[in-house]
Amino acid sequence: MTQSKQAPLDEATAILLTPGGLDAAALDTGLDHAMGAGIDYADLYFQRSWHESWVLEDGEVKDASYNIDGGVGVRALAGEKTGFAYSNQITPGALADTGRTASGIARSGSRLTSQPVRAGGAPLRYAGVDPLSGLSAEDKIALLKQADRIARKADPSVSQVTASLTGVHEVVLVRASDGTLAADIRPLVRFNVSVIVAKNGRRERGSAGGGGRYAMSRLRDDNVAERFAKEAVRQALVNLEAVDAPAGQMPVVLGSGWPGILLHEAVGHGLEGDFNRKQSSAFAGRMGQRVASPGVTVVDDATLADRRGSMTIDDEGTPGAYTPLIEDGILVGYMQDKLNARLMNMAPTGNARRESFAHMPMPRMTNTYMLAGQDDPEDIIKSVKRGLYAVSFGGGQVDITSGKFVFSASEAYMIEDGRITAPVKGATLIGNGPEAMGRVSMIGHDMALDTGVGVCGKEGQGVPVGVGQPTLKLDELTVGGTQS
Amino acid sequence: MTQAFDAAAQQTLLESRVAVALEQARTLGADACEVGASVDQGTGVNVRMGDVESVELSRDQGIAVTVYVGKRKGSASSSDAGEASIRAVVEKAIDIARYTGEDPYAGLADAELMATEFPDLKVHHSWSLTTDEAIELALACENAGREVEGIANSDGAGLSTGEGVRVYGNSHGFLAGQRGSRHSLSCMLIARDEQGMQRDYDYSSERDPAKLSSPQTIGRSAAERTLRRLGARRPETGRLPVLFAPELASGLVGHFLNAIAGGALYREASFLCDSLGKPLFPEWFTLQEKPRQIGGMASSSFDSDGVYTRDNVFVDSGRIASYMLSAYSARRLNMTTTGNAGGARNLRIEAPLTAQADLLAQIERGVLVTELMGQGVNGVTGDYSRGAAGFWVENGKIQYPIEEFTVAGNLNAMFANLIGVGDDIDTRGSIHTGSWLIDDMTVAGS
Known about the structure:
The structure holds two protein chains of two kinds. By secondary structure, chain A is α+β, with helices and mostly antiparallel strands. Helices cover 22% and strands 38% of the residues of chain A. In chain A, helix 4 (137-154) runs parallel beside helix 6 (224-240). In chain B, helix 1 (7-27) crosses helix 2 (83-97) and helix 3 runs parallel beside helix 4 (215-227).
């Protein structure tokens, strides 16, 4: 999938613009409204999305829902200032109203005209399919019921099974005063299984899920119902045996894949352009400096085929990119949108994202991961006298200013004398981003990406993201258990 | 850049659309139907380093339809509440109900439970504020903070003002609206020392703009909260009493409410399954819900099933006195709804209150937690482990700031070990409480 194509633009035009009577000239007129006195950049962001969700409980799909959303968001920039308005009508009248409102951010200054459309195009990172139509309603229900059967058969202690299948068909089109005209058809699907197991008066939960930017039929082809049902039961049973987690500082080994949420929290957010322009990030002003152990290379990569965090174009129309952030421990790059790139005299990196047309874009991660190292994962475990081995996580959070980050384990084990021993209850791990990255002492050769479950929240906006990493050893991190 | 909002006209319009949707659902073969519609409008301004950063005008609307065909259910929604869209949404919901499985518990709440009285709860207060005035207030707030010595940088100040209308109707003939407003002013500042940077914030949020704290109060408080974090150390690992600041104690109440919510109970996803009547908190502790409180942040005379809201007592003298149920979860548990579809409204604690200084005075060695991070709460087991920042307390007095540690325990034990509730009540949200002093938690630091 490397060809540059006109197809998404034609399809998006037909879906987004034609019904409201908008053509190329109407977009130019819309931009003219937004390019008021003193405005140096404006963009129009058109979006429609169809969201479907099927939920199984008690062995039956008793609830399903469908949501249609759409509209246009208009943004006008004047230096560091942003004016923003939106409408759920995509009509010439709505463009005029929102454009005039947004351009009110500047009251004076010269009137600039917008650039004519530049020929552009981005390599497609996923097929522009409607993911919802990939399976019939009966097929979707059958897939959920299969997960229920398999989970219940897997172990007699399984008492509750909840399974869900969701899909979003999203169509976006961006026209900006810098000559940008770009469109994207973004499918996104996800399958999830959550179980409760009960035994000897104890109750525990286990869950597993995943998906990506493709048709729902691929979930069936990938056998997700069986894989995630078995994985959810396995995790719940492990937790049923878990003992209290230790408390205090110790070596921590993180498994490959989803534990890459460490990178997302410990370094990712701190390398977003807006925080560095405002000098509010613990990484501000450290470009070119060592911020992690030698051997640590972290990238943000929107170009991975079909991944949950991938983007053919970002929400400003910039092609999605492979952006090195840390190379061999040295800080080499920030993630940028157009506003922050311009103010920092850098180039946009295709990281402008927004939850919807009703939200302002800002620099966000796509798929953020650490490249593989040389170490054998078994040797990494063997090197630990007493520590924690964490393989699955719930969520995380970071204070980008102090650099403090947390992430909460949902499956973890003790390491004693180089061997994995008892499972321990989920505990929150806490550290300081730059410090923790400097304590990475071993990097596995088993780099893996997560299964496609991440949602990143920033300033109240959620966007789908991916993470990944090889097995990793941090010489010291604080583990928040109860056994001191 | 201001936009007028005629709440009464909007309510009339939404009510007529909900009625149209209900009628369409009936015509298309639904045996029962419920429809929610809303419109919200607002302005948000952000300033940073003495200049405007963004001005945002928002206007959101939506309509959500749930139909029941026999015992099958289907739901659909749209951000477009226009006539054509409504028809498409109803058709889609009915289409979905062709595929979903039968659910013996599905359906509307019983007709006799529908709310019949709709007193003015005084939760809607417009604020005729121009964009320039909003910017002035935000600038005054940030300036007051930046003027405090030691503040090096700012994450900005923001003012947001919004109002909206929510309408709910169902095929029992119930149709009612609720107008509301929310106005808030916030400020986040940054300070630096040789150790690095710290940030903190403060905010005020009210239904009635006249009740907002002054911009100067918020800005100065944000500065003080930021500066007091400088020079933070790491506490030693150990078992210690933990004093939770009021804005965090309300989160502990939230964990309790999640655990007595019908949805968690019938899914066996709660550490409080089969706990009705059992002791959980100390005897002196009672937790009540006042859903019809005048001016309350979450006040409403009907819940999202249309059921009348009533005062509930969830904890009575330490014992779990009631679960928190919707019509559906109540049927699942063979109980009666408590008027809590959509959640809890206005939680109030009835307990002997202690001055925060007197709570501190009870701590020989312990921590005051002023910030919690992460999602380390397991609702199934009650296991609790969260990142924290705050202050080291010794001999009854705050000694120095601390950071990069966790506080952990199990909610069952934490609630039982509640020693005292402060009189420093935070009234900004739906849950009003002062500080909570909890004995014997595990603090993990250096």
